[in-house]
Design goal:
- It holds the Pfam family Glyco_hydro_1.
- Keywords: Glycosidase, Hydrolase.
- The structure is a single chain.
- By secondary structure, the protein is an alpha/beta fold.
- The strands form five sheets. An eight-stranded parallel beta barrel has the order 1-2-3-4-5-7-13-14, surrounded by four helices.
- Helix 3 packs parallel to helix 5.
Length: 475
């Protein structure tokens, strides 16, 4: 009971746009994240409220170098292997493979780069878990067709999937179609390359884009299973149950509505159809989805094999408009929970919330789960050798692994693996900062882009190594 099942996939998670760098190397095209600056303009751009379609000299763009995984991948994967990783979650940069998104032929240099990364993983017995698009749209498609507003995106995504599934069919078994697909509602430019015109029905635009992504995800699942029946295709949700602020029925109802807002995407990807509550919501908000013939059939017949999710914290909501002491929590506005401590960025720390979330998702779908992000963003203070005594990170992860084990061993939740976020320090997606660190490995780089990029092990590195060695028994 103290361990996890044999074959459990321990590892860590990253994203191309937050770690890769080399933003125009190897014939890579410009991506949405490459034009998102650090600083005060970051959120307006991510929200689609401020158009920034090119880079300028006045802003700093953290993705351009990030931590330069592009040139350091061998060293980084060797460190992951030393920790004992069984699995490495990473994403592909779409514009590295199709620089403009609509190119007639893929970019061989980009394909070769990922071949090399996968080969390096497999050399150490590490299974790649690949997110096809992680907050990533080629900028050319934003400018030419409005990104996921356009139905044409489904075809371009389909083409990307055909190329990568065929190319890597003997190297990659586990795939995720879209990272945190529900983030499209909260950060539309980062989630779907969306920008808005004044006076538009923004909700209608977002849900139409969501429909295109949901159809694209189902088509990817169909293509994958045709190319290699052993492929396992998952969806990915930014998860965390929403608690009611009080036992007032209005608060309980509000928390249910908030959870449904996120489950909506997975309801379609896992059950294969639009839920009735969503159809009613569309009616109320004057949203009329444009569907093509065959869409409903594609969704119904190509549901995902497993459900992956990120979990950082739970959320809290109230139906009372006066209860407004809100705190920032990874773009999801949430009330302060008086029973929980919070991180330096105001994210509330709730290990039991992970067990609650796992049970909620498993009860709803009865499909295997995979925790593909979980971790603590914190300011680390290294000594002269780059060593960090990050006991706060160890404590956070230890309590979450305990909750995860309880969900598996005591509640019977089926769980495939655990890949904590930012296993090596990388650029924060929400703030663009380097100082908001998650990793077991420290990278010498600051918010302004200065530093040697030297890698060094934190205290948590050896702690996590023991956790993996003991299959979760030694915490």
């Amino acid at each position: 009971m103290n361990k996890l099942p044999e074959g459990f996939l321990w590892g860590g998670a990253t994203a191309a746009n937050q770690c890769e760098g080399g933003y125009l190397e190897g014939n890579k095209g410009l991506s949405t994240v490459d034009v998102i600056p650090a600083g005060k303009d970051r959120f307006p751009v991510m929200l689609g409220k401020m158009n920034m379609f090119e880079c300028d000299d006045e802003h700093f763009y953290p993705s351009h170098e990030a931590i330069d995984f592009y040139h350091h991948y061998k060293e980084d994967i060797a460190l992951f292997a030393e920790m004992g990783f069984k699995c490495f979650r990473m994403s592909l940069a779409w514009a590295r493979i199709f620089p403009n998104g609509d190119d007639a032929e893929p970019n061989e240099e980009g394909l070769k780069f990922y071949d090399d990364v996968f080969d390096e993983c497999l050399k150490y017995g590490i299974e790649p878990l690949v997110t096809i698009t992680h907050f990533d749209v080629p900028m050319n498609l934003v400018k030419a067709i409005g990104a996921w507003r356009s139905r044409k995106m489904v075809d371009y995504y389909e083409r990307l999937c055909e190329v990568i599934f065929d190319r890597y069919k003997n190297k990659v078994k586990y795939w995720l179609t879209f990272n945190e697909i529900n983030m499209l509602l909260h950060l539309p430019f980062i989630g779907a390359g969306l920008t808005f015109e004044p006076g538009e029905n923004e909700e209608a635009v977002k849900y139409q884009a969501a429909h295109h992504q949901l159809v694209a995800s189902a088509k990817a699942t169909k293509i994958a299973h045709a190319i290699n029946p052993d492929f396992k295709i998952g969806c990915m949700l930014a998860a965390g149950n929403t608690y009611a602020n009080t036992c007032a029925p209005e608060d309980v109802w509000r928390s249910m509505e908030k959870d449904r807002e996120n489950y909506f995407f997975i309801d379609v990807q896992s059950r294969g159809e639009y839920p009735n509550y969503a159809k009613k919501m569309f009616e109320r908000h004057n949203i009329s989805l444009k569907m093509e013939e065959g869409d409903e059939e594609i969704l119904k017949n190509n549901t995902v094999d497993f459900i992956s999710f990120s979990y950082y914290s739970s959320r809290l909501t109230s139906a009372d408009p006066k209860v407004s002491a809100e705190t920032e929590g990874n773009v999801f506005a949430t009330l302060k929970n008086p029973y929980l401590k919070a991180s330096e960025w105001g994210w509330q720390i709730d290990p039991l919330g992970l067990r609650i979330t796992m049970n909620s998702i498993y009860d709803r779908y009865q499909k295997p789960l995979f925790i593909v992000e979980n971790g603590l963003g914190a300011v680390d203070n290294p000594d002269e050798n780059g060593y960090v005594e990050d006991d706060y990170r160890i404590e956070y992860l230890r309590e979450h692994v305990k909750a995860m084990k309880a969900a598996v061993n005591e509640d019977g939740v089926e769980l495939m693996g655990y890949t904590p976020w930012g296993c090596i320090d990388l650029v924060s997606a929400s703030t663009g900062e380097m100082k908001k660190r998650y990793g077991f490995i420290y990278v010498d780089k600051d918010n302004e882009g200065n530093g040697t990029l030297k890698r060094s092990k934190k205290k948590s590195f050896n702690w996590y190594k023991k956790v993996i060695e003991s299959n979760g028994a030694e915490l």
